[in-house]
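User: two proteins, same treatment. go.

Assistant:
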Amino acid sequence: MGKRKRGANKTGANGSQPTQKRAKTDQSLPNGAETTSLELEKTPFTETLTGEARRREAKVYDLLGSADSDERIAAADALITGLLASSETALERHLDNRLFRGLASSRNASRVGFSLVIAEILNQLFGPKNLAKSKYPGLTFDKVLNILVEKTTPSGHIPGQEERDCYFGRLFGIQCFVESRVLFDEESRWPKILDLLLKMADKKVWMRSHCGWVIVESLPQMGQDRAEETLRKLADIGLGKTAEGIGIWMKARSCYPDLKTPAKPWHDPMNPAVLSEVARVLKDNVAQDNGEDAAITKAKQGGWSAQLHFVWDLILAAFIGQEAGGKQSKDQLKLFWTTVIDDGLFSKNASDAQKFRGFVIFQKFLQGFATENAELARELFTRNLMKCLMNQASKEDRYLHRAALKSLQSMEKAVQASPELLLPILRELLGKHGAYDFDQRTNTKTIENLLQWATPDNAKSVLKLLRDPIVVANDAAGEVEKFRQVYAGYVSKLASQAKPAPEALSSGDKTTNVAELGVKELAACAYSIQPQFKPELSEKSREVFRRLLASTIGKVMRRRADAEYLCNAVISVEPTAVNMSDEIKTEQESALKAMRKLLKASKKSDSKNSGASVGLALLYAITILQLYDGAPDAISILQDLERCSEKMKSKEGGSSELLVEILLSLVSRQSPMMRQISEQVFEAFTSQISPEALELLTEPLLAEENEKGYQALFENLEDEDAEMEDAEGSGSEPEVEDIDEDDISEIGSDVEFVTLNGVEAGADGEDEDEDEDEEDVDEEQAEADAQELADLDDALAKVLKSHRLDKDKDAESSDSDSDMTDSEMMALDEKLVEVFKQRAKKSGKKKEKKDAKESVIMFKHRVIDLIALYVKHEAANPLAFNLLLPLLDVVRTTTAKPLANKAGIAIENFSRAFKKARAANSDVKFDAETQFALMREIHLQAAKDMSHAYGRAASAASLLVASSLFTDKENIDGINALYAKTFAECQKGAIKMQGFFFTDWVNWGMGHAANANAGASGQTQGTA
């Protein structure tokens, strides 16, 4: 045992972690017999130690210091029971040699376990049972206290850590006396304990706060008379004017309201008359004081610690305990916070350490008020604190940057815990001591994150709070524009981050929908004249509102209810800020009327037809917004929508084809909103899509990825170019905020396939042939660029009659040093202009080709997104299988790997959706002849390309068709015969195919065989 202890102490000197790990390993050894190991003997302990007694005591004390609470409690129970049944000699031996000495040990949880036993024994000895008088007369209070002092007194020249252990052991021992509640049964006991505490506080300054806390815990037990006497003693020795003294005074006053406190240093630390002195004490600058407490100020001052002093918990508890919402409590907190925190810890002369402490106090008080007394929270946002907070949060290199960010995060947590705090905190951050553009000033997303906690109850108040500062602006024109654009960003975040409204809101509930409120505000500011704005909203600001409206709509479209309130928002807009001709106005009124009818019809129809009506109404709403924006094709789209509605109403054919044409025209635009709306509308109509509409949907996938394909897809090039120029023009305006990650993710494929100069992140590592092809393309491109530069050099050399420096040997010598005349200079200038014109034409044409290719690829991405939605909902529809060949063609022919990957994934998702659909409805039947013809065509197409990705896609498509045929067992032979024929042709060398095309088939067949065998065995057992 001795060697083990020495080893533990040696390890502990280097760090506590190894000791703890080894102890846990030791404890884990008897885990298999944990119940028996905790069944400890509870018989009396012997006065003299024998071998058996030593082993018993060693085991119980080892468990008493365990990090496992169950082991500690079991050991404490056995030890207390055994000791109280033992003789006085045995009990004294354990107190002397084991228990009090163990308090000075830092091994695992020794102090905790030993304190548990000592506190209970002290209670039994000197408490109500008073065993010290009846059973152990030799163990008096003074003798037990002397044992504690003797065993925790450092002697000789010992290391600093051992000295600290001794003092902490004494502190824990005194804490045991307090917890045993025996100090105030006799008058002489408390003064002795208090003297020990004060001596420790005076000798070791780092112990002062711990000693003060023990006194605080003793106050409820001692009664008012002893509390008054204790305070007088503390005041006499000068400890009253310390942080510990303030805490003790406050605790005493809360325990005994009629307490007569000493006149000095103060009757009540929260009294306005002494707050300046309290602020000086809490700021830790008492060392410069020359007042009456000079004796204590000359004592050692404690070093700085990141841990907050216990006095702040007591001050917080005092404010929380006051009457909620009382004016007196608010005024008292405001005066205290301004004097002690704002003018103290955040003053100009405050150190970084003091400001850090101020931030920690702010976080503690904010969290405390958030859960207990939310109305007091707004008093914490004072001038100096806010100035320091914004300054430190704005840049990462600031010393207190992390502390400031943590303070901002504490605001978000407080609002999350108590949503009623949102308005007060927003008012302070955006108000007098904050800044309206708070997020931009601090480079954070604090306001944005706070707005997500807006609720239907406070949404209107939040919007009013955001709107009021920018309605009437007296600042410079630039500031007005800036703040109004910031306001647009806030409203957008308010709407896009709103929590989904309950379903009840869609059925006439008058509760505010936060997202609807935000969308309506954005639309009103974008298209309506707002007379309350002084000055009036500029066209520049309106452009920002329109851009953010489109972005917000793309984010909030989640459910049918969202589509309904979006339509209502468009209906509520009065486009007084939009110049419209009579023709446009007529189309707008007609569209609004049609939209109202569709919304009304959706509430009377079943769920299937209702979704289609809402989808059409949503298309009307988006197109009306495009009409307000001046889109050249908006009127034609509205007319197409009208024809589509009429055909659907009369159940005339061709409505789905017309709808697909409209959706394709919308998804062709690089707008997240258009993409989101188009997908949602298409999803509502998937069950009504005709074969002709599906063919129309897949036609763009066959287009070449070049200028020719671009012209085939986008016939009206002039209008398209005009729209692109308008988009570029609007994009050149200064942005209010950076593009969100969400916006980037929504654009998605618009971005990722633009640069194909190497291996994409999502590509398979096995596509070595494709990688080599791309490397060859890059090399060819580099060679072409180099040749282009060489041609430019040659053209310039001919005009200038010069040469490059590396061609001196090949150049002819020139002896003419005469200067050029003015006419020669003009002629030379014209030749140079012509050379660069020709180069610009070549570069412009090259860019046009690149843009055309990217536009075609982007459009194909959008089409595949629609196809993915169709196969998700209509996997069991025979028409869906017509999409397999176009998807395979995309995988084989496209030069953009992300597009090929998306097409392959669409086939895989189709297969998964078909399995689910077949499991839900096992009666699904397909025309065998049509499916076999499709499978044969897939096999023929599979042989056209040996790339790995294409082979996988073809295999998945073929097995998907086979699965559709497998519903009829008679088709099994035909499936296997078709695969066998393809395999035979591959063996003969007639075609080339990947080997996994056939191993996938074998695995698929064996899987079905296993299922069939399992079903047969189940039927046999059921019959038996």
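Protein 2:
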Amino acid sequence: MSVLRRSPLTLRPFSRRAYHATPTRHAKLTIGIRREDPARIWERRCPLTPDAVHELVEKDGVEVLVQPCERRVFTSNDFIKAGAKLHSTLQPAHVIVGIKETPLPEVLTTPLPAPASPAGDSAQSPLVPRTQVMFSHTVKGQLYNMELLSKFLASENRSAPENGSLLPRLIDYELLTDEDGKRTVGFGWFAGVAGALEALCAMAHAHLELGVASPFLYTPRPHTEPSLASIRSILRDVVGARIVSDGTPKSLGPLVIGVTGTGKVAEGCLAILEDLPIQKITIDQLHNVVTDPNTDLHKVYVVHAHPKDYFVRRDGRLFDRADYYAHPNEYVSEFHTKIAPYLSLLLHGAGWAPAYPRLMSNDQLTTTLEIAQTLGKGRFACVGDISCDVEGGLEFLSRHTTLSSPFYTTRPPTLPAHLPSVTIMAVDILPTALPLEASQHFSQAFLPYLRSVLAGYKEPGREAASEEERKTREALDRATVASGGELREPFAWLRKPLGVWKESAGLTASSSASALSTPQDAGKKSALPGVQPKKRVLMLGSGMVAPPAVAELCRRADVELVVASNSLEDAKRLTAPYANAMPVLVDVSDPAEVERLVAGSDVVISLLPVPFHPSVAELCIRNGKHLVTASYISPAMRELHDRAVAADVVLMNEIGLDPGIDHCSALSLLESLRAQGKDIVSFTSFCGGLPAPEYADVPLGYKFSWSPKGVLSAASNAARFKLGGEECTIDGDDLLRKYFTDVPLSNVLKFEGLANRDSLPYGDVYGLSPLDGVRTVFRGTLRYPGFADLMYAFKCIGLLDASTTVNPHHWTALVRQALEKQLGTLVMDDPASIRSALFSVVPAHQRDTVLRALHWLSIVPSSLQSEYAASTDPTYDPSLPALPTKPTAPIDMFASLLAHKLRYAPGERDLVVLSHEIVARPKGSRLPLSQAHAEEEVHTSSLITYGTPEASAMSRTVGLPVAFATLQILDGGVSARGVQGPTAKEVYVNVLQRLEEAGLGVKESVRKGGLGGKEGVEQSLRRQWRTMEEIV
């Protein structure tokens, strides 16, 4: 999420001068209309119109001052004519109103003389606090606005008069609600109108990228017209008229717009769409409207989806509103299958909160797009997310946009390569695109509240004269964040983020008004007698591996954790269970914002994407902070070594699973054996992330959470290793034939192994060089039995071919066309011909297995499948991804198919397997190295763990080592400096011990070697390799 930077990197200098109070004299009650922050170039709205100002001056007898602004929708001359006066600072104003938060240097906090009483009392007026009204963006704990909040609190302004009790009252428009909790002052309807217009423009652009020009190219962008009336005229008389006369493009099919939400935003969307030739339809009509070739294209079809249409209980019961709000975790969304695939444009206006189900997750987007591809061009190509909840209701909304650049294309990491990106409009200040009407509406709604505030100055202590006045006062009370220098009780929790801001700005607990701190001083804690300062950890990122790491760090009462994420909701969800964890919103593309957080921390954990790690490391070096990541050491990171050493910091990398636990377990066992005077003669290592066995009963015994293209391509990678004293290579064409069956790692689970690229460089990593003193160095990848044979059959059929193209008109023709390219001859489209061609490339013993798999994957004709249908998949679902519109390589088509058919389903658990086998012999042994002997010992080190309902196996085996290393660094247990991996004994011993305590202990065993005992991994590999070589 893009975050507005409120101030420079560190805290502004605190002035020790006494607060100035205007001499006490009679003062006229004065309202000030503030200009908006000049940095907000699109903000043209105003909280009061000239008409409202005229009414306040003439009827209410107050003075109105207006801060000059040439960008405002109303001119200064408009306000002067209404009876206002221009004033550059608004210093005399008792009540100051604006739209967005006040720029920090312009916040007026000094009290003023009370306005003269109506009776004209001649006594000197006492001082009274000002009132500031704005959208303050403080009430969710936004870190970047804590400095603004601090200006209203006595604890942060020790020199304020009357111990801070005369500091201003802060009222937030966002909190003005009726007794039912519904907001009464806002811009929701205008956000809906402007959002619909911007989204229609974005959709027109998306259509152009599909090669189609649609009538929506003529949609007016809202800020380009002087009034809403002129916008609606163009939409009706130009865009709508073209649709009526010419229709929407036939290649796009019926144009369907979906609207979500039940509030003002949705009302605004639906209102502006009325200017088009629309026909409202129901959810049940969607399929027929989209698939019927006779659907009238001279209309735009609008469906308004309510929560009852797409939220269902997990137990299958229908939606119940009261039950939904009481038990939101019991509901799931079906929007991605029931509604989304049929839409040309989604206008999302529904709100979202972390405890509630998303409208669509990233995984559900994949399903939507796969279905949409079968329905024609342009389905679910564009989204207008007016709610603007980053990674919220729509998980794939990755950031806000601006009016200067209103839309972008998004591709979640889990989206398979064969599926298209989605164009998203997510402008977060939409109402300002309609500044005139939005301001007029807002002013009218706000005026009663403003009059109630004014009454409090005119007649303090007077009882409410009516029920309506009582409700207005209560609403203002609920909307007051701070008054009298104190946070109101509902917002007392803001002390926590306020404290985070103070420490991250280099401010100590005992002197919140201290002078500007330097980067060297940043993050120092106050040394109060008898109080042990907490150790501060900053976690950048809130992704998959974060939950186990957060839980482990927060077990320590002396640790304070700050989780900084571009999704505040995700950070809140992670930290909510822990008293010593704090969520923070951050824009990681803003170095100053990140550095402020880094400076206030002791150790930084980066769970950000790999490209961000070096820049975070740079900030850590500059501020003298340690860094922990789970990623491989990149060249850019390695270059920082000398600077990190000079700064006395450690940049600890490769501390996850692979790399991470694999290093720790291997180095621990190797070190132990060397300490015993043993020579290492063989090192083999296997690792694999797999579906748990109960979820592996699918072709290949494998599942994908990302595009399978990488796995398919790896099936043709060459490999190099040393085995039995011989340096061996496997050509890429032979990798799937020269695999190792029944790798003996478990008495229960059966695995086969594939050589994993080049193993020889790992001799240096583990101190095994020179390699002429080692018999075996082998690294492999684990799969379930049957993977290699079936994948090789797919390769023989031609499904892994990247050098040619096919263009089938249906998925059932993919195998036939791949065979034609593979065989170089025509294969007739009948069962006998296809079977004959298939059997000519597939070995006889595999034919039944391969045919069953092809049926399960739905890529052979039904006539060829019929004999297998009953026994293989009684729930056979022929719905498949859309076929490419142009000739495509078989490997790409096959990858898109596997991404659809072999993806993880919700609730399916994973499995992590890591195993080393190290063969050692007495130091100085004169026995031949190439042959196993009875004096040799076979040592194993293994980890096998499953995912749980709380966390996946992968997240635990990556997140926990990160946490363990972080705590060790905090405690001063890591002496190394510079760019490091977990190669120091002090690190890997600690990590392994802590894993043991967490139930993830690495199990070690030893047995005698030689040829007469149990066959070990190395022996099994050597035996099988000899057999393979003999066969070949």
